[in-house]
Write a structure and sequence with these properties.
- It is a single chain.
- This protein has 434 residues and is mainly alpha-helical.
- The protein folds into three domains: 1-36 and 199-271, SET domain (Beta-clip-like); 39-194, Orthogonal Bundle (Annexin V, domain 1), CATH 1.10.220.160; 272-433, Tetratricopeptide repeat domain (Serine Threonine Protein Phosphatase 5, Tetratricopeptide repeat).
- It contains 17 helices and twelve strands.
- The chain has helices at residues 74-79, 83-96, 104-116, 119-125, 143-160, 169-182, 200-203, 247-258, 265-269, 273-276, 288-308, 315-330, 338-353, 357-374, 380-395, 399-416, 422-433; strands spanning 7-12, 16-21, 30-34, 38-41, 61-62, 70-71, 183-187, 193-198, 206-207, 213-218, 221-226, 237-238.
- The N and C termini lie far apart (50 Å).
- The mean pLDDT is 92.
- One of its GO terms (cellular component) is nucleus.
């Protein structure tokens, strides 16, 4: 097992394996950068992003065999050894045609299995944690998730068995559980999903709703930067989930996905819940039971929206659903309430899909007023919202407002991504061109 300068593994009480710093780190300083053990580009991004480096560009070279995968050039396709991964899918896509439909997690697991066959590749990628050391929590998986994993295992056999010698069923279920708990989404500057990757060295970092570091991507590599000043002995902590929501919601999500409850200072004293669940000011106080009922209504609405949000042929109905729920919740909740903000964010997304920039901007301007107060400093959720607003302003020829929003995004991104990140370079070009 290797090491990374300035960091060491240790046993964290109640958490197990963990990572801490052995020297001071300042806000914005890079703790370490690590390549993905392996990764996969989302199918929705094919044709827009390079399959190997995830660069987004207009003129990409198409794979001559399957005609489905795209690359910057021959170097990305062959010279950087992506063919070793792509060949797992290439002939299968040709053979199955429109019936080729493995899940993204099945595609990633196939690449992990292919990668593990090469000892040299494995040793080069694993600095402080081996891929086999990643926790699986397979014993904690409920029946619903087990059925999903079983379906993914079936897809793995159906679409990849020609090129892979697959482990036994039990080992595959363990591997799928490992990936489900430890897979990282690779996102663009607006937090849109581009793909999924496995980073063993990042999987060692524990969760806190008060994170000390943030993980961002440069291409397919992960970069870990401090968002708090750190002193020797401080544990390296990231947030596994979106921390916008109240304590009970956060811990329900952590239990469902990662099988633990957070004990950070915010979760222990629920210090931010009152602000997150802000209610309207009225001369006659709102009864606690009314508030509790509205919280249940909000959670139900969010679940229902998630179930149908990808059905693009009913966009107008989705927007109407958002507007109705905002009206219903608005009788009890303040505009700053996180459930109101959640529905506004969904409504903004629907407006963008419907190519209604004015409608999207109306929701976005309301959201950003509260995001910057509710999220931790240097949050990507805040910077991505400023980027969205900046691009909407620019598109509507409101240059001054657009530049202002871009600058606020850049102030966060310089810490989270580093001042030399190409997102910042491209943003400067975008501002100059507009």
């Amino acid at each position: 097992m290797g090491s990374i300068a300035g960091l060491e593994r240790f046993d964290s009480p109640g958490k197990g394996r963990a990572l801490r710093v052995t020297r001071p780190f300042k806000v914005g300083e890079l703790l370490y950068s690590t390549p993905a053990y392996t990764f996969v580009l989302s199918l929705n991004e094919r044709g827009f992003n390079c399959e190997f480096c995830f660069t987004r560009k207009e003129k990409l070279a198409r794979c001559g065999k399957c005609k489905k995968a795209f690359y910057c050039n021959v170097k990305c396709q062959v010279g950087c050894k992506d063919w070793a991964m792509h060949k797992l899918e290439c002939s299968a896509m040709i053979a199955f045609k429109e019936n080729w439909c493995p899940s993204e997690i099945s595609r990633l697991v196939a690449r992990i299995l292919a990668k593990k066959k090469t000892k040299k590749e494995r040793c080069a990628s694993e600095k402080i944690l081996r891929i086999d050391e990643i926790q699986s929590h397979v014993e904690d998986v409920d029946n619903e998730k087990r059925e999903m994993h079983e379906a993914d295992v079936f897809g793995l056999h159906r679409f990849f068995s020609k090129h892979l010698k697959l482990p036994d069923h039990k080992d595959l279920l363990t591997l799928f559980s490992q990936v489900a708990c430890n897979g990282f989404t690779i996102e663009d500057d607006e937090l849109s999903n581009m793909g999924t990757a496995i980073y063993p060295d990042v999987a060692l970092i524990n969760h806190s709703c008060c994170p000390s570091v943030i993980v961002t991507n440069k291409g397919t590599s992960a970069e870990v930067r401090a968002v708090q000043n750190m002193k020797p002995g401080d544990e390296v902590l990231i947030s596994y989930i979106d921390v916008l929501y109240p304590t009970d919601d956060l811990n329900n999500r952590l239990r469902e996905t990662y099988y633990f409850t957070c004990d950070c200072r915010d979760c222990k004293n629920k210090s931010k819940d009152k602000e997150k669940l802000k209610v309207r000011k009225r001369s006659d106080p709102i009864e606690p039971e009314v508030i509790s009922n509205m919280v249940r209504y909000a959670r139900k609405t969010i679940r229902e929206f998630r179930a149908v949000k990808h059905t693009k042929n009913i966009l107008s109905e989705l927007l109407e659903m958002c507007e109705q729920s905002l009206e219903e919740m608005g009788a009890v909740f303040d505009e700053a309430n996180v459930y109101m903000l959640h529905v506004m964010y969904q409504a903004m997304g629907v407006c963008l899909y419907m190519e209604d920039p004015e409608g999207a901007l109306t929701y976005g301007e309301k959201i950003i007023k509260h995001y910057s107060k509710l999220y931790p400093p240097f949050s990507l959720n805040v910077s991505s919202m400023y980027l969205k607003l900046g691009r909407l302003y620019m598109g509507l020829e409101r240059r001054s407002a657009g530049v202002s929003a871009f600058k606020k995004a850049m102030a966060i991104m310089e810490v989270a991504h580093g001042k030399d990140h190409f997102y910042l370079t491209e943003l400067c070009k975008e501002m100059a061109q507009k």
